[in-house]
Automatic annotation (TrEMBL):
It holds the Pfam family Cyt_bd_oxida_I. It comes from the Bacteria. This is Cytochrome bd-I ubiquinol oxidase subunit CydA. It is a multi-pass membrane protein. GO terms for cellular component: cytochrome complex; plasma membrane. Keywords: Cell inner membrane, Cell membrane, Electron transport, Heme, Iron, Membrane, Metal-binding, Transmembrane, Transmembrane helix, Transport.
Length: 539
């Protein structure tokens, strides 16, 4: 087994996937924010909201196009670098991706064109419907992709067929309503909403610092802070749901995130900070909060969360059970229809742990020849990198709570302080723009790195999933992707900065005329309006 090929394939996929996800959250969030702004325009008929819709819609369009380009190249890798994975689970994994392309992406792409070119061809209400269909398509795309990814984390609704040597779907309903996929969907889209809200907030704050496009900036901050506060709160709540799901679907990942080496009496404590030592299997200088992990992970005071050491021992038992299934599988492959019923019965009884026997392929060609030492090594391989997961998770959570504070502050200033913002707060809003992308990438790192050594948890090890390529092939394609994505990054940043500096450039005259009339009405409303100037007492 050429592990260098596997590691290069992992590196290439990680690079392309995490780069692609730089575009996804902004697309998800901006599509909703733009639709909200157009809804306000249709309700009030105020040109400033139409101008806002077009301006933020332009930035959405740039991000959308480049996100599509990076997403297509990423999907090609399933066939190029992960051929055995595609063969082994393609019947299940491919179905949600096909539905995403045929249903969600076509919906989104079709109505994106109508959104940009239909302003003067569609009625206001028809164009508003288009805006919401674009938002629906964007979020629908995320749903199907995360259903596919959720199945990799929790492979339900499928079973292994020993005659075809492939996983086959047994329940489409279970695949769709997989609890991990659903939890990942709501958590991911909420993170996207926060990302877009912080982006709109930061760009609008920059305009206020420059004293440009003040009306647009203040209204944008009002929308972004309200939407962002609700989204940031939901991210925390829905992240808790993901943790609860992991407590019974991915126990090793949860234990690694918490650096929980031993099983604690229920309810388990939460390690707020510490320094995990995977070699010694202990966490130095740990600061624990009693009961918190038990309440989050199990939502009870009596259910234990197993520690890493106990889970390794459990994995060793599953490897031994998997060896029974593997031996029966080899007999079935050799005898085909002539296989004795008791052999098939033995396979069916132990097939759920077949993937654990495959972990031995790293050490021996035929898992049945594995020694006790090799079985122990394979069981230890089920522990992902604890320290990176431990710190990535805590940084992600810390950023998540900071977004709640930021959005709450700006919502308060926008709602109760007449949209007056201190300059230090505006500078802070600009500086925090990259933070939600960092949090989102950390979230994906925790999700995917925490699943190792599995491509499909408990079913297919990553070491078996890769294509039979040469190191040279992978280095060439890795370099090609790096060049291609670097160019796309430069294009993306150049276009986004260009149009942000340019500011709103559509409907300028109409908006300025309306703004002047609106200000005049406020100032001359018979002295009775809420914004009318206060009369000076006569002397």
């Amino acid at each position: 087994m050429e592990l260098d090929i596997v590691e290069l394939s992992r590196l290439q996929f990680a690079m392309t996937a995490m780069y692609h996800f730089l575009f996804v959250p902004l697309t998800l969030g901006l599509s909703i924010l733009v639709a909200i702004m157009e809804t306000v325009y249709v309700m009030t008929n105020r040109p400033i909201w139409r101008q806002m819709t077009k301006f933020w819609g332009t930035l959405f369009g740039i991000n959308f196009v480049l996100g599509v380009a990076t997403g297509i190249t990423m999907e090609f890798q399933f066939g190029m670098n992960w051929a055995y994975y595609s063969h082994y689970v393609g019947d299940i994994f491919g179905a949600p991706l096909a539905i995403e392309g045929l249903m969600a992406f076509f919906l989104e792409a079709t109505f994106v064109g109508l959104f940009f070119f239909g302003w003067d061809r569609l009625s206001k209400h028809a164009h508003l419907a288009v805006a919401w269909l674009v938002a629906l398509g964007s979020n629908f795309s995320a749903l199907w992709i995360l259903i596919a990814n959720g199945w990799m984390q929790n492979p339900v609704g499928a079973e292994f067929n020993p005659d075809t040597m492939r996983m086959e779907m047994t329940s489409f309903f279970e695949v769709i309503f997989n609890e991990v996929g659903q939890a990942k969907f709501v958590h991911t889209v909420s993170a996207g909403y926060v990302t877009a809200s912080v982006f709109v907030l930061g760009v609008s704050a920059w305009y206020l610092l420059k004293n440009r496009h003040v009306d647009l900036a203040r209204r944008s901050i009002a929308v972004a802070s309200a939407f962002g506060l609700a989204s940031a709160l939901s991210v925390v709540v829905l992240g808790d749901e993901s943790g609860y799901s992991a407590s019974h679907t991915q126990k090793m990942k949860l234990a690694a995130i918490e650096a929980m080496w031993e099983t604690h009496p229920a309810p388990a404590p939460f390690t707020a900070i510490g320094f995990p030592d995977q070699e010694a299997r202990e966490t130095h200088y740990a600061v624990e909060l009693p009961w918190v992990m038990g309440l989050i992970g199990t939502r009870s005071l009596t259910t234990e969360i197993p520690g890493i050491n106990d889970l390794v021992a459990e994995a060793e038992d599953k490897i031994r059970t998997g060896l029974i299934a593997y031996d029966a599988l080899m007999t079935i492959r050799e005898n085909r229809e002539a296989t004795q019923p008791e052999v098939r019965a033995a396979f069916e009884q132990n097939s759920g742990d077949l993937g654990f026997a495959f972990l031995l392929k790293r050490y021996v060609d035929d898992p049945r020849d594995a020694t006790e030492e090799q079985i122990a090594l394979a069981a230890n391989d089920t522990i992902p990198g604890v320290a990176p997961l431990f710190w990535s998770f805590r940084l992600m959570v810390g950023l998540g709570f900071s977004f709640i504070a930021i959005m709450a502050y700006f919502f308060y200033r926008a709602s109760f302080r007449g949209m007056q913002f201190p300059r230090w707060a505006l500078y802070g809003a600009v500086a925090v723009i990259p933070a939600p992308w960092i949090a989102a990438e950390l979230g994906w790192f925790v999700s995917e790195f925490g699943r190792q050594p599995w491509t499909v948890d408990g079913v297919l090890p990553t070491a078996l999933s890769a294509s039979h390529l040469s190191v040279g092939d992978l280095l060439i394609t890795l370099a090609g992707f790096m060049v291609f994505y670097t160019i796309l990054f430069i294009v993306e940043m150049g276009l986004m900065l260009k149009y942000i500096r340019k500011g709103p450039f559509q409907d300028v005259e109409e908006t300025e005329i309306w703004a002047a009339r609106h200000e005049h009405r406020l100032r001359t409303h018979d002295g009775k309006g809420p914004f009318a100037p206060t009369a000076t007492p006569a002397e």
